[in-house]
Amino acid sequence: MAQSAIPAPSAPQVSEITPISLKAIAPWAAFIGILALILLYFVGAEQGATALISGENVHEWVHDGRHLLGFPCH
Questions:
Q1: Residue 7 domain-assigned (yes or no)
Q2: What's the total number of domains in the chain?
Q3: Most-buried pick from 10, 15, 55, 74 (CB within 10 A)?
Q4: Predicted TM-score (pTM) of this structure
């Protein structure tokens, strides 16, 4: 039988997935957690009894977000 010009398919090479260590994820997780808490504070509590910024600007910027997330604001 003559040799074919098309090579026989070989088995696909499988590369191993290296897991990301907890030490590599921890700083990013802490950073995202702090940002989430700050955002939650501004949407949920700012311009109320614990206002850090005077005036109505922050309240007006996050007003619709408060209603969307179920926070009472008035």
A1: no
A2: 1
A3: 55
A4: 0.57
